[in-house]
């Protein structure tokens, strides 16, 4: 099973693509046979869907049948010739073809229990920050905005800083707390606790902690359980940004990284990163009151209108099955480990968790940047730079041979660069 999933199988794409186009064309041909306005009750779908994703792949025909029998009844047919409400929302066969091309080039919806699909992790962070801000301001009064304080590590994605800016959090009240190698770049509980105590003594109002599971630069994992308890003790909102590494938690052996997740007020993960679902699909869970059967999703996101993003995620889950998705993730982790072994087997390289290996002039900065430029301008592989590490294995078509090639390119360019040394 390991590595057997072929998420970009061209022949399967051809076959399924033809069948999908037939399915869509049949829908448009029979559109007048459906009630224009959906006739079902809010929440009807929850009972029709299984509790969990299938372990093994399902066949496309079963999915088509479910779309017709379960999903379509919940749809109001904006493209129906009998639709005269609101305003036009034109679709066309050219658009459908264009959208497919867009999916190729680019590289939930109606369920309850507090899940919603945002476009991006940045939007998800902004939305929960706004919710947290309004919640605390309702308690302490609108005039206290300038006292609100946000806590995160120096490894947190810049999306948080942007969200703070948009939400009107005073820039000096975003605590970017220092991390280092001793904690593998994870937030230290003591550092956060000290910052909170010192802010409370200064009359400020700590209200939001953003923890990350898999930071962009260092793949660091903040201590979820401890931070969650701390947030609760001080009545703060606790958000977990698992945009990148959250996908790995589909494998039970990596799930311990989110132990304590039940303490969170919100949790976000990008299916469009490492979960075989095209951009945009950022899954957000929010601890929400379940008093109303109808969740008004327009209030859980920035725009009013929403794309039906859950459909593509649903197809990924059903057509691949959980077991295949798990082995897909495991295979990438195996390839990354293989790359690490290659690095450690060559004495000119160092597997670094801190920036460049020291030398007496510039800490290796020029040499490493020269290597990165040389590798990238070779056109053979593409690496990105970061202050900490630089090789992210996770593309759908990456196999063992690509890892070997990447390593060869790095070695060749390093040999060229090291000649004058
Ligand atoms: N959070 C983390 C940990 C990320 O790695 C990224 C993107 O790399 C983001 C947030 C931002 O993601 P998006 O582009 O979906 O806003």
From TrEMBL:
GO molecular function (one): pyridoxal phosphate binding
Modified residues (N6-(pyridoxal phosphate)lysine): 273
GO biological process, one term: carboxylic acid metabolic process
Keywords: Decarboxylase, Lyase, Pyridoxal phosphate
Record flagged with keyword Ribonucleoprotein: no
Membrane-spanning residues: none
Gene Ontology annotations for the cellular component aspect, listed alphabetically: cytoplasm
InterPro entries xref list: Aromatic_deC, PyrdxlP-dep_de-COase, PyrdxlP-dep_Trfase, PyrdxlP-dep_Trfase_major, PyrdxlP-dep_Trfase_small
Pfam families linked to this entry: Pyridoxal_deC
Entry annotated with the keyword Nucleus: no
Cofactor(s) annotated in UniProt: pyridoxal 5'-phosphate
Protein family (similarity comment): Belongs to the group II decarboxylase family.
Listed name of the protein: Pyridoxal-dependent decarboxylase conserved domain
């Amino acid at each position: 099973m390991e590595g057997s999933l072929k998420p970009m199988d061209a022949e399967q794409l051809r076959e399924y693509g033809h069948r999908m186009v037939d399915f869509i064309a049949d829908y448009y041909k029979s559109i007048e046979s459906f009630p224009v306005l959906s006739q079902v009750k809010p929440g009807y779908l929850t009972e029709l869907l299984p509790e969990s994703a299938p372990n093994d792949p399902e066949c496309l025909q079963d999915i088509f049948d479910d779309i017709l029998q379960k999903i379509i009844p919940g749809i109001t047919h904006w493209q129906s010739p009998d639709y005269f409400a609101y305003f036009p929302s034109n679709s066309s066969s050219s658009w459908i073809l264009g959208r497919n091309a867009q999916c190729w080039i680019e590289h939930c919806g109606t369920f309850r229990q507090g899940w919603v699909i945002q476009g991006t992790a940045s939007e998800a962070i902004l939305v929960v920050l706004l919710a947290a801000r309004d919640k605390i301001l309702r308690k302490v009064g609108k005039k206290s905005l300038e006292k609100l304080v946000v806590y995160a590590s120096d490894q947190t994605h810049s999306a948080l800083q942007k969200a703070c800016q948009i939400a009107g959090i005073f820039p000096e009240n975003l605590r970017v707390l220092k991390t280092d190698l001793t904690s593998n770049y994870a937030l230290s509980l003591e550092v956060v606790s000290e910052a909170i105590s010192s802010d409370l003594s200064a009359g400020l109002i700590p209200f939001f902690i953003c923890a990350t599971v898999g930071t962009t630069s260092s793949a660091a994992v903040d201590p979820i359980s401890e931070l969650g308890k701390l947030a609760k003790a001080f009545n703060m909102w606790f958000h977990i940004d698992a945009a990148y590494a959250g996908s790995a938690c589909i494998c039970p052996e990596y799930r311990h990284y989110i132990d304590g997740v039940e303490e969170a007020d919100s949790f976000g993960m990008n299916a469009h990163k490492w979960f075989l679902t095209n951009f945009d699909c950022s899954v957000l869970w929010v601890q929400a009151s379940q008093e109303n059967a109808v969740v008004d999703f327009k209030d859980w996101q920035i725009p009013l209108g929403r794309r039906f993003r859950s459909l593509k995620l649903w197809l990924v889950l059903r057509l691949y099955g959980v077991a295949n998705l798990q082995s897909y993730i495991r295979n990438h982790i195996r390839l990354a480990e293989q790359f690490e072994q290659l690095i450690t087997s060559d004495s000119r390289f160092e597997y670094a968790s801190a920036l460049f290996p020291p030398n007496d002039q510039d800490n290796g900065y020029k040499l490493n940047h020269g290597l990165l430029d040389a590798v990238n301008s070779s056109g053979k592989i593409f690496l990105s730079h970061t202050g900490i590490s630089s090789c992210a294995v996770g593309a759908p078509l990456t196999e063992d041979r690509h890892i070997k090639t990447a390593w060869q390119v790095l070695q060749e360019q390093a040999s060229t660069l090291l000649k004058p040394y």
